[in-house]
Amino acid sequence: MIIDSHCHLDFSVFDDQRDQLMIDCCNSGVSGFLVPATQYSTWSNLESLVKRYPQWRVAYGLHPYFLKDASLDQIERLGHQCETERVVAVGEIGLDLWPGSVDMAIQMAFFSRQLLVAKALDLPVILHARKSYDLIFKCLREAGFKRGGIVHAFNGSFEQAKRFLDMGFVLGIGGTITYPRAKKAHRVLSSLENSAFVLETDSPDMPLHGSQGQVNTPLSVLSVAQHAAMIRDESVEQITAQTCANLLRIFPMWYEDLH
Ligand SMILES: [Zn+2]
After folding, report:
1. What is the whole-number distance in angstroms between the Cα of residue 92 and the centre of ligand 1?
2. Peptide bond before residue 204 is cis, with ω within 30 degrees of 0
3. What is the pLDDT of residues 38-97, one digit of tens each?
4. Domains of the chain (ranges, CATH numbers)
5. Cα 153 to ligand 1 centroid, rounded to whole Å
6. Could you report the per-residue pLDDT of 13-32, keeping only the tens digit for each?
7. For residue 62, how far is its CA from the centre of ligand 1 (angstroms)?
8. What's the CA gap between 205 and 31, in Å, rounded?
9. Does the first or last residue of the chain, that is N or C, have fewer Cβ atoms within 10 Å of its Cβ?
10. What are the backbone angles phi and psi of residue 90, rounded to the nearest 5°?
11. C-alpha of residue 36 to centroid of ligand 1, in Å
Protein backbone atom coordinates (compact mmCIF):
# COMPACT_ATOMS: atom_id res chain seq x y z
CA MET A 1 0.00 0.00 0.00
CA ILE A 2 1.21 3.45 -0.89
CA ILE A 3 -0.29 6.89 -0.31
CA ASP A 4 0.10 10.03 -2.41
CA SER A 5 0.25 12.74 0.24
CA HIS A 6 -0.28 15.65 -2.15
CA CYS A 7 -2.30 15.57 -5.37
CA HIS A 8 -4.87 17.91 -6.90
CA LEU A 9 -7.27 15.28 -8.17
CA ASP A 10 -10.13 17.79 -8.12
CA PHE A 11 -8.58 19.81 -10.99
CA SER A 12 -10.63 19.76 -14.18
CA VAL A 13 -7.79 18.17 -16.16
CA PHE A 14 -8.82 14.91 -14.43
CA ASP A 15 -12.55 15.20 -15.17
CA ASP A 16 -12.51 12.78 -18.11
CA GLN A 17 -10.17 10.23 -16.57
CA ARG A 18 -10.75 10.42 -12.80
CA ASP A 19 -12.81 7.21 -12.43
CA GLN A 20 -10.40 5.17 -14.57
CA LEU A 21 -7.40 6.70 -12.81
CA MET A 22 -8.77 5.67 -9.41
CA ILE A 23 -9.21 2.10 -10.69
CA ASP A 24 -5.67 2.06 -12.12
CA CYS A 25 -4.28 3.42 -8.83
CA CYS A 26 -6.14 0.78 -6.83
CA ASN A 27 -4.77 -1.97 -9.10
CA SER A 28 -1.24 -0.62 -8.62
CA GLY A 29 -1.45 -0.40 -4.83
CA VAL A 30 -1.80 3.38 -4.67
CA SER A 31 -4.65 3.38 -2.23
CA GLY A 32 -4.73 6.70 -0.42
CA PHE A 33 -4.74 10.32 -1.59
CA LEU A 34 -4.49 13.62 0.21
CA VAL A 35 -6.15 16.32 -1.89
CA PRO A 36 -5.55 19.84 -0.56
CA ALA A 37 -7.77 22.68 -1.77
CA THR A 38 -6.38 25.76 -3.47
CA GLN A 39 -9.07 28.43 -3.87
CA TYR A 40 -12.37 29.13 -2.14
CA SER A 41 -14.26 28.75 -5.43
CA THR A 42 -13.15 25.11 -5.68
CA TRP A 43 -14.13 23.97 -2.17
CA SER A 44 -17.66 22.84 -3.03
CA ASN A 45 -16.49 20.74 -5.98
CA LEU A 46 -13.91 19.05 -3.75
CA GLU A 47 -16.62 18.52 -1.15
CA SER A 48 -18.77 16.55 -3.59
CA LEU A 49 -15.86 14.63 -5.15
CA VAL A 50 -14.66 13.30 -1.80
CA LYS A 51 -18.09 11.76 -1.27
CA ARG A 52 -17.62 9.85 -4.51
CA TYR A 53 -14.05 8.72 -3.69
CA PRO A 54 -13.86 7.44 -0.10
CA GLN A 55 -10.12 6.78 -0.47
CA TRP A 56 -9.49 10.55 -0.64
CA ARG A 57 -8.66 12.69 2.33
CA VAL A 58 -9.00 16.43 2.00
CA ALA A 59 -7.72 19.68 3.42
CA TYR A 60 -9.28 23.10 2.90
CA GLY A 61 -7.35 26.31 2.63
CA LEU A 62 -6.39 29.30 0.52
CA HIS A 63 -3.24 28.64 -1.53
CA PRO A 64 -0.81 31.59 -1.50
CA TYR A 65 -0.35 31.66 -5.26
CA PHE A 66 -4.09 32.07 -5.91
CA LEU A 67 -4.95 34.89 -3.53
CA LYS A 68 -5.85 37.45 -6.18
CA ASP A 69 -9.58 36.77 -5.79
CA ALA A 70 -9.44 35.85 -2.11
CA SER A 71 -10.98 37.88 0.69
CA LEU A 72 -10.35 37.70 4.40
CA ASP A 73 -13.97 36.71 5.16
CA GLN A 74 -13.21 33.42 3.37
CA ILE A 75 -10.97 32.59 6.32
CA GLU A 76 -13.98 32.71 8.65
CA ARG A 77 -15.67 30.25 6.32
CA LEU A 78 -12.52 28.12 6.40
CA GLY A 79 -13.02 27.47 10.11
CA HIS A 80 -16.63 26.48 9.50
CA GLN A 81 -15.69 24.33 6.49
CA CYS A 82 -13.06 22.41 8.48
CA GLU A 83 -15.48 21.86 11.35
CA THR A 84 -18.37 20.62 9.25
CA GLU A 85 -16.51 18.61 6.59
CA ARG A 86 -14.26 15.68 7.40
CA VAL A 87 -10.75 17.10 6.97
CA VAL A 88 -7.30 15.88 7.99
CA ALA A 89 -5.58 19.28 7.74
CA VAL A 90 -5.77 22.93 6.82
CA GLY A 91 -4.10 23.54 3.45
CA GLU A 92 -2.59 24.19 1.27
CA ILE A 93 -1.41 27.40 2.82
CA GLY A 94 1.91 29.21 2.93
CA LEU A 95 4.06 31.80 1.19
CA ASP A 96 5.18 31.89 -2.43
CA LEU A 97 7.93 34.28 -3.52
CA TRP A 98 7.73 33.26 -7.16
CA PRO A 99 7.41 36.15 -9.67
CA GLY A 100 3.74 36.90 -10.24
CA SER A 101 2.66 36.06 -6.69
CA VAL A 102 0.56 38.58 -4.81
CA ASP A 103 2.13 41.10 -2.44
CA MET A 104 3.98 39.48 0.46
CA ALA A 105 2.13 41.50 3.14
CA ILE A 106 -1.16 40.13 1.81
CA GLN A 107 0.20 36.58 1.65
CA MET A 108 1.43 36.82 5.23
CA ALA A 109 -1.94 38.12 6.45
CA PHE A 110 -3.72 35.14 4.88
CA PHE A 111 -1.10 32.62 6.00
CA SER A 112 -0.99 33.80 9.62
CA ARG A 113 -4.77 33.84 9.96
CA GLN A 114 -5.10 30.38 8.46
CA LEU A 115 -2.46 29.12 10.90
CA LEU A 116 -4.63 30.46 13.71
CA VAL A 117 -7.65 28.59 12.30
CA ALA A 118 -5.62 25.36 12.25
CA LYS A 119 -4.36 26.03 15.77
CA ALA A 120 -7.87 26.67 17.09
CA LEU A 121 -9.12 23.41 15.55
CA ASP A 122 -5.97 21.48 16.54
CA LEU A 123 -5.35 20.46 12.92
CA PRO A 124 -2.00 19.99 11.13
CA VAL A 125 -1.27 22.09 8.02
CA ILE A 126 -0.12 21.43 4.45
CA LEU A 127 2.55 24.04 3.77
CA HIS A 128 3.30 25.49 0.36
CA ALA A 129 6.65 27.26 0.63
CA ARG A 130 8.51 28.58 -2.39
CA LYS A 131 11.70 30.53 -1.71
CA SER A 132 10.18 31.49 1.64
CA TYR A 133 11.36 29.13 4.39
CA ASP A 134 12.66 31.84 6.73
CA LEU A 135 9.43 33.83 6.51
CA ILE A 136 7.45 30.62 7.07
CA PHE A 137 9.44 29.91 10.26
CA LYS A 138 8.74 33.46 11.42
CA CYS A 139 4.96 33.10 10.86
CA LEU A 140 4.85 29.68 12.55
CA ARG A 141 6.67 31.10 15.56
CA GLU A 142 4.50 34.20 15.80
CA ALA A 143 1.31 32.14 15.53
CA GLY A 144 2.60 29.76 18.22
CA PHE A 145 1.71 26.94 15.84
CA LYS A 146 3.00 23.59 17.15
CA ARG A 147 0.75 20.97 15.54
CA GLY A 148 3.08 20.30 12.56
CA GLY A 149 2.01 18.85 9.22
CA ILE A 150 3.68 18.43 5.84
CA VAL A 151 6.11 20.75 4.07
CA HIS A 152 4.93 20.09 0.53
CA ALA A 153 7.65 19.73 -2.18
CA PHE A 154 10.46 20.34 0.28
CA ASN A 155 13.61 21.48 -1.53
CA GLY A 156 15.61 23.15 1.21
CA SER A 157 18.88 22.39 2.97
CA PHE A 158 19.47 19.76 5.64
CA GLU A 159 19.47 22.54 8.27
CA GLN A 160 16.08 23.81 7.10
CA ALA A 161 14.79 20.23 7.08
CA LYS A 162 15.94 19.79 10.65
CA ARG A 163 14.18 22.98 11.72
CA PHE A 164 10.89 21.82 10.26
CA LEU A 165 11.29 18.36 11.81
CA ASP A 166 11.91 19.93 15.21
CA MET A 167 8.59 21.78 14.77
CA GLY A 168 6.67 18.55 14.18
CA PHE A 169 6.59 18.60 10.38
CA VAL A 170 7.51 15.91 7.87
CA LEU A 171 8.86 16.70 4.42
CA GLY A 172 6.97 16.00 1.20
CA ILE A 173 9.30 14.25 -1.27
CA GLY A 174 8.17 14.18 -4.90
CA GLY A 175 9.21 14.10 -8.55
CA THR A 176 12.20 16.42 -8.07
CA ILE A 177 14.31 13.50 -6.85
CA THR A 178 13.82 11.68 -10.19
CA TYR A 179 15.96 14.32 -11.94
CA PRO A 180 19.66 13.34 -12.14
CA ARG A 181 20.74 16.97 -11.72
CA ALA A 182 18.88 17.36 -8.40
CA LYS A 183 22.05 16.60 -6.44
CA LYS A 184 21.18 18.70 -3.41
CA ALA A 185 17.75 17.06 -3.07
CA HIS A 186 19.43 13.63 -3.29
CA ARG A 187 21.99 14.57 -0.66
CA VAL A 188 19.36 15.89 1.75
CA LEU A 189 17.07 12.87 1.24
CA SER A 190 19.90 10.42 1.87
CA SER A 191 20.74 12.10 5.20
CA LEU A 192 17.20 12.20 6.62
CA GLU A 193 15.90 9.86 9.32
CA ASN A 194 13.27 7.30 8.25
CA SER A 195 10.66 9.20 10.19
CA ALA A 196 11.26 12.49 8.36
CA PHE A 197 9.41 12.27 5.06
CA VAL A 198 6.33 11.25 3.07
CA LEU A 199 5.83 10.69 -0.67
CA GLU A 200 3.83 12.91 -3.00
CA THR A 201 3.29 13.73 -6.67
CA ASP A 202 1.66 17.19 -6.73
CA SER A 203 -0.41 15.88 -9.67
CA PRO A 204 -1.20 17.21 -12.22
CA ASP A 205 2.00 19.28 -11.80
CA MET A 206 5.65 18.35 -11.21
CA PRO A 207 6.09 15.66 -13.89
CA LEU A 208 8.84 13.13 -13.32
CA HIS A 209 12.11 13.15 -15.22
CA GLY A 210 11.38 11.88 -18.73
CA SER A 211 7.67 12.84 -18.57
CA GLN A 212 8.03 16.60 -18.86
CA GLY A 213 5.02 18.23 -20.50
CA GLN A 214 2.65 15.41 -19.54
CA VAL A 215 -0.13 15.45 -16.96
CA ASN A 216 1.28 13.93 -13.79
CA THR A 217 -0.90 11.42 -11.89
CA PRO A 218 -0.69 9.71 -8.49
CA LEU A 219 0.54 6.55 -10.26
CA SER A 220 3.96 8.20 -10.43
CA VAL A 221 4.25 8.00 -6.64
CA LEU A 222 5.48 4.44 -7.29
CA SER A 223 8.41 5.79 -9.26
CA VAL A 224 9.11 8.41 -6.57
CA ALA A 225 9.26 5.54 -4.04
CA GLN A 226 11.68 3.60 -6.27
CA HIS A 227 13.96 6.60 -6.63
CA ALA A 228 13.83 7.30 -2.89
CA ALA A 229 14.78 3.65 -2.27
CA MET A 230 17.76 3.90 -4.63
CA ILE A 231 18.95 7.20 -3.19
CA ARG A 232 18.67 5.92 0.39
CA ASP A 233 19.91 2.41 -0.39
CA GLU A 234 16.78 0.85 1.09
CA SER A 235 14.09 -1.42 -0.32
CA VAL A 236 10.93 0.02 -1.89
CA GLU A 237 8.96 -1.91 0.76
CA GLN A 238 10.87 -0.14 3.54
CA ILE A 239 10.18 3.24 1.92
CA THR A 240 6.47 2.66 1.42
CA ALA A 241 5.92 1.17 4.88
CA GLN A 242 7.83 3.93 6.64
CA THR A 243 6.25 6.80 4.69
CA CYS A 244 2.75 5.41 5.35
CA ALA A 245 3.58 5.17 9.06
CA ASN A 246 4.84 8.77 8.98
CA LEU A 247 1.65 9.97 7.32
CA LEU A 248 -0.52 8.23 9.90
CA ARG A 249 1.56 9.76 12.68
CA ILE A 250 0.88 13.26 11.31
CA PHE A 251 -2.76 12.46 10.50
CA PRO A 252 -3.97 10.03 13.20
CA MET A 253 -7.52 10.73 11.98
CA TRP A 254 -6.74 9.30 8.50
CA TYR A 255 -8.80 6.11 8.93
CA GLU A 256 -11.45 7.48 11.30
CA ASP A 257 -15.06 7.42 10.11
CA LEU A 258 -14.30 4.92 7.38
CA HIS A 259 -16.67 2.32 8.75
ZN1 LIG B 1 -0.34 21.61 -4.29
Report:
1. 7
2. yes
3. 999 999 999 999 999 999 999 999 999 999 989 999 999 999 999 999 999 999 999 999
4. 2-250 (3.20.20.140)
5. 8
6. 999 999 999 999 999 999 99
7. 11
8. 20
9. C
10. -100, 130
11. 7
